[in-house]
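User: I'm putting together notes for a lab meeting next week and I want to include a structural view of one of the chains we've been expressing. I don't have a solved structure, so I'd like a prediction I can at least talk through. The sequence is below, exactly as it appears in our construct file.
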Amino acid sequence: MDISHLLDDLNPPQREAVTSTSPAIMVIAGAGSGKTRVLTHRVSWLIEVERLSPYSILAVTFTNKAAAEMRGRIETQLNMSTRGLWVGTFHSIAHRLLRMHWREAGLPQQFQILDSDDQKRLVKRVIRERELDPAHYPPPQVQWWINNRKDEGLRAANIDAEGDHYLSTMVQLYHDYEAACERGGMVDFAELLLRSNELWLNQPVLLKQYQERFAHILVDEFQDTNALQYAWIRNLSGKDTQMFIVGDDDQAIYGWRGALVENITRYEQELAPVEVIKLEQNYRSTQTILSAANGLIEHNQERHGKNLWSDGEEGEPITLYAAFNEQEEARYVIDQIEASIADGADRDQSAILYRSNSQSRAFEELLMQRNIPYRVYGGLRFFERAEVRDGLAYLRLVANRNDDAAFERVVNHPPRGIGNRTLELLRAEARRVNQSLWTTAQNGSAWGLSGRAAGALQKFSELIEEIARECADTSLADSIETTINRCGLLEHYAGQRSEKEQARVENLEELVNAGSLYQPDDEESELDPLSTFLSHAALEAGENQGDAWEKCVQLMTLHSAKGLEFDQVFLTGMEEGLFPHSRSIEEPGRLEEERRLCYVGMTRARQTLCITHAEARRLHGDTRITSPSRFIREIPADHLREVRIRGQVEAPVYRPGSSLSSAQPTANGLRLGQLVAHAKFGEGVIMDIEGDGSRQRVQVEFSEVGSKWLMTDYANLQPQ
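Assistant: Thanks for the context. Below is the predicted structure for the 720-residue chain, given as structure tokens.
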């Protein structure tokens, strides 16, 4: 058998991973080392060489984009359809299982998925029903708390809150939220995985069936798994299952949302003996960038040691720029980008990375001033746009009248004279009789609504029923078109002539196109197409990935940059308290995660990397003197080249020996060559002076810490 197409383009460690026969394999895949290639070749190897059925393979990823890329590559390699192959995210695979085994999972057949926004609406409702103050129990916080408990595998009934009033109240809200979801036949994203894991625990016969089916389980980005995801995988893996995980503990940056880098060590211990294969050859960055990143990450203690290397070019040194403030930092960065564009570089190959979203403002302002197209990563995707979510809510109500979140979203949108007071009374009665809002609304006048309010609710109910009748026995696209045309949203937005409202109309019309192009999976083909489409839309909206980029300069947080790469990267705001963040400095575990985040940012660069920091930055309304990040000091100095751009300073430059050396002293009475003392840095000599007034700064050569630029208004330098 000719298997050259599966092995020839692999390096030795990649080939070892693809062909291994060990029962438990762990691939430590460094940044840019070709982990996707290894995963896809591994699946192709199992099917073509080991003659396994695609139905016996489960591959789990963290994004729909990664799953689609894996499917596409496998189809190309094998020249065959992969529709029988289970490849998807944790949530999409859990959703697929629950659709197939809804009865065993204790769900209605046409259950609906709550997206984050509708979940928040439901949380707000249960807080109101408990008559709690939202200031003390903020809905986003309650929502986060509930989701975290689910990610830990905990139901409200499993949490012991005795003696703790706050915790008891949170548990009560969790219980009320669970009851509301149960009544409405709804599940949120965290529930998908929790309910799916409970399926394994409560249905041992079904679990054994899937353990026997999935002889091979492959998991990508294993360092990002949380407690529940790890448990789900471990429960599904039987004694004869071959496990193949790919991860990188040096790129574990999601601890704040429950990811446990410790799962890599736990896997290695629980499945021992585990074959560990390291992918260290990098196909992305220059050797200089890799050596600098290696030097930084070596300061972390708990890690699988590895050393990234490249057989490509050595590359330019990493540029280090110390700016006066955030405005000068932005000016320097944008100047460099403009220069690269003038030299023929594509705009979208320049990326500005920062630790906090608030840092983007200075860059955005300057980019707009210079008419340079840019995009802030994380813009709203199609299914996340408000008008599209409104249309989906109508569709959800057509599919399931008991969907309380959908009911509340659209019952008075467009306006129908159904006010907040009517909804409050409706919610109270629904809770009293333990029914959905829809069912309770059908006889409003019988339990106390005014004739006008009851009539408005009745007209809304009749509209939904009419839409449902017109959609019966029609195609998915026709059902969506009928609903969008009849619900009143199109007419509502079309009557407003602004460009924004016209864009809303176009988005609603595009929703019909989305329905016409939607194709369910084979095992969902027997289910109601509208329900599966709505689940697809909710899952797509829940994935935090941006659309395909236009030719724009890219701005993004370091967390958003993971998985991306650019020719030119600017790692900005590298200052103590900002990066690493002040909240992480006193906690070793969090500090190590911040260092991993810096490592991720550095390894996004293919050709050039520039690190910038400001000596003064306005934060929370105050201008603060800052010091360079410790991460800069941890990068080997021989890979750094410090630069200064004098021509951009508005005030005169004072240099020793120049005709300006005898210029007037600064406001603090300091002169060039003067010996001074600083409370933190010790004694030093003034080597240079820039600017005047509140913008004045001096360069001091300190005997202990070297050269520093300091603002004279804040440095409190004492003449010696």
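A couple of points you could mention at the meeting. The two ends are 82 Å apart (CA to CA). The chain has five domains: 4-102+193-281, 112-184, 294-378+548-645, 382-542, 649-719.

User: Perfect, that's what I needed.
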